[in-house]
Amino acid sequence: MKTIELLAPAKNLECGVEAIKHGADAVYIGAPKFGARAAAGNSIEDLSALAEYAHQFGARVYVTLNTLIKDEELAEVEQLVWQLYRIGIDALIVQDMALLTMNLPPIPLHASTQTDNRTAEKVKFLHAAGFSQVVLARELSLAEIEAIHRACPVPLEVFVHGALCVSYSGQCYASQACFGRSANRGECAQFCRLPFTLEDADGRIIERERHLLSLKDMNRSAHLEEMMDAGVRSFKIEGRLKDVSYVKNVTAYYRQAIDAVLARRTEYQRASQGVSTYTFTPQLDKSFNRGFTDYYLMGRRTDVSSFATPKAMGEPVGHVKEVGRGYVAVSSTKSFHNGDGLCFIDDQGRLHGFRVNRVEGVRLYPKEMPREIRAKMPIYRNFDKDFEHLLARPSAERRIPVRLTLSEVSFGFSLTITDELQRNVTVNFERDKELARTEQRAGIENQLSKLGGTILVAQDIEVRFTENWFIPSSVVADMRRAAVEAYERMLRTTWPTYVTPRKVDTKALHCGEGSPLKPALTYLANVGNHRSEEFYRACGVEEIAPAYELSAPRGATLMFCRHCLRYALGWCPRNGGVRSPYREPYTLVSADGRRFALDFDCKQCIMTVKGK
To answer: Which domains does the chain have, with CATH numbers?
Structure first.
């Protein structure tokens, strides 16, 4: 059986618990420090509570330690890893190779997407180094994912939903160069969401003040089965800064979508147990999104970018029918409510929004009337008041289906609880047997089924009596409570502790033919401390440049993007584009006057951005 994991984000303990309730098989969450979202740190106490809650369902908790580490932080990181191991964290998602040289407990390490995992050679190298799971680059196509899977047996984790970075992860230095905030240190300033003017070599303006590097959000929900068959074993939802309503809605949607595939494809099984039920119907376009794309999963395409705005567009809800005095009449099949947030793109391609103050039929009365709105403009809803109200309440319950078996034994009776994973507990009760005057089975089954207030639900109840034995209802209730307590105690005490050391293939790590390593490493290797340098020297690397954050090379490339403005504007020479009317090289100019040179590597199908 091939195990399929739904991996959800958690900003904090509340989000983590709700992700598990709404169907996640695992969650990833930030440690107190050293996560790639500096604003999403969590205490050891909260992480311990989340692990205890998740493990009831066989779900896992992965903690992110995926930043570059400074020399003076190495000892603190090593101590933190031991703390995380002791509270039952299931794996660490890391970027810095320094961790491979530390004295660590046998806790699994997952290679973050920030280790730039886009080739089979790189993934094989990381597997040889001891990583037990690898997060692939978001830019990879289905064919590229499958080729990596065939080349290397390590489980592959792939992003399936959420915000997209325009540069390959771990290879973006624009935020550091422009604002002194390192993306590799968890402090990205979102350079790619800024507006730019695009100029040609003669200073002619090609695009003016457009969000040329801003991408739509990923949505691969239509391709889950194809991704499973290509070798994806963990489906990752992006969003460690997202609020709890986003986590609830998106996790529930993917849980249902994955389960629909698993129901047909019995060679696949889910990675945890328990069944989630919901008080709402999950809808992806109701949560924050900039419009959706499956990115390059099915090959290169033009619908990946969002030049108009980096802000949420939400769901399409119709178009403007009429603009009157103080109201906007809409043509739509949707229902609107007081407090809804709507938006539209004006004639200049700019996004505007307004809040609905009052609804009268098809007429919407904004709190402030937008002057730019016109008839026939498409309308989007980026805040659905009623939907958010539903998600603000308890919106899911996750319970484990179990079989309860009441049997007679020589000294009395025993009650066994068995779950989906065939884990079981048995409690015994000494009691003299006496025949009942009336039929007992229905009453016993009814009493055993009363599992409300626990995480269990009775899927099957079996009474194995040779005679119609009498047991008072209160005794059956005592037996049920004792069995449930024993089962919950078993869940808390039997979660696997990792004792197997990481397997390292030192021969496969040595740089040479077939290795992703070269004898000389540039700043792109992100070597920021002496332990990371020691790791690469042990692999045979002779020259190692420091990380960009330590010593920025003059004229360094700041971004490496599969998103290509040549292609987006219809001028790609490899894909049937027309000849551009503008002369290269092209330059991006930010609102504050900074200038960035664009270069196009058609052989590798990459656009690069360099500071001028």
So the answer is: 2-164+216-272+280-286 (3.20.20.70), 311-386 (2.40.10.170), 396-493 (no CATH)
pLDDT digits (tens, 9 = 90+) for 70-114: 999 999 999 999 999 999 999 999 999 999 999 999 999 999 999
Instruction: Please say whether the beta carbons of 284 and 253 come within 8 A.
Output: yes
Residues of the chain with pLDDT under 70: 36, 38-40, 496-500
- Is 27 strand, coil or helix? strand
C-beta of residue 255 within 8 angstroms of C-beta of residue 6: yes
Q: Which amino acid is at 324?
A: G
Largest Cα–Cα distance of the chain, in whole Å?
101
CA separation for the pair 358, 352 (Å, rounded): 19
Specify the pLDDT at position 409: 95
**Residue 246: its pLDDT value, please?**
97
What letter would DSSP give residue 184?
G
Q: What is the DSSP letter of 556?
A: -
- b/e per residue 217-237 (b: at least 16 CB within 10 A): bbbbbebbbbbbbbbbbbbbb
Angular region, 128: left φ>0, alpha ψ -120 to 50, beta rest:
alpha
- The closest of 280, 284, 281 to 314, measured between CA atoms, is 284
Q: Which residues is 65 bridged to in the sheet?
A: 94
Instruction: Identify whether the C-beta of residue 522 lies closer than 8 Å to the C-beta of residue 529.
Output: no
CA dihedral 191, 524, 151, 301 (to 10 degrees): 30
Q: 424 to each of 88, 210, 228, 491, how far by Cα in Å?
A: 22, 60, 31, 10
Q: Please report, for residues 194, 313, 321, the alpha-carbon distance to residue 355 in angstroms, rounded to integers and kept in the order given.
A: 25, 14, 18
Closest CA to 299 of 168, 165, 121, 145: 145
Q: 247, 239 in Cβ contact below 8 A?
A: yes
Please provide the distance, in angstroms rounded to a whole number, between the alpha carbons at the two ends of the chain: 53
pLDDT at position 38 is 65
Which two three-digit tokens encode residue 444?
Answer: 């016993």
* Alpha-carbon distances of 17 from 22, 91, 160, 477, 594, rounded to whole Å: 9, 18, 21, 29, 44
- Is the bond into 546 cis (omega within 30 degrees of 0)? no
- Per DSSP, the residues of 201-235 read TTS-EEEEEE-TT-B-EEE-GGGHHHHHHHTEEEE
- The residues that bridge with 198 in the sheet, in sequence order, are 207, 588
Q: How far apart are CA 357 and CA 331, in angstroms?
A: 18
Residue 584 DSSP class: S
Q: Which CA distances in Å does 240 have to 36, 37, 396, 400?
A: 9, 7, 20, 27
Q: Which residues pair with 557 in a beta bridge?
A: 610
Beta bridge partners of 218: 162, 293
Q: How much is the pLDDT for 6? A: 98
pLDDT at 543: 96
Alpha helices by DSSP H, listed for 523-595, are 530-538, 565-568
Q: What is the DSSP string of 395-451?
A: -EEEEEEEEEEEEEETTEEEEEEE-TT--EEEEEEE----B-SS--HHHHHHHHT--
Q: Are 356 and 382 in contact (CB under 8 A)?
A: no
Q: How many CB atoms lie within 10 A of CB 68?
A: 26
Question: How far is residue 168's CA from residue 189's CA, in Å, rounded to a whole number?
Answer: 16
Do the bridges between strand 60-65 and strand 587-590 make them parallel or antiparallel, or are there none, so unpaired? unpaired
Q: The tokens of 447 are what?
A: 């009493």
d(CA 473, CA 458): 17
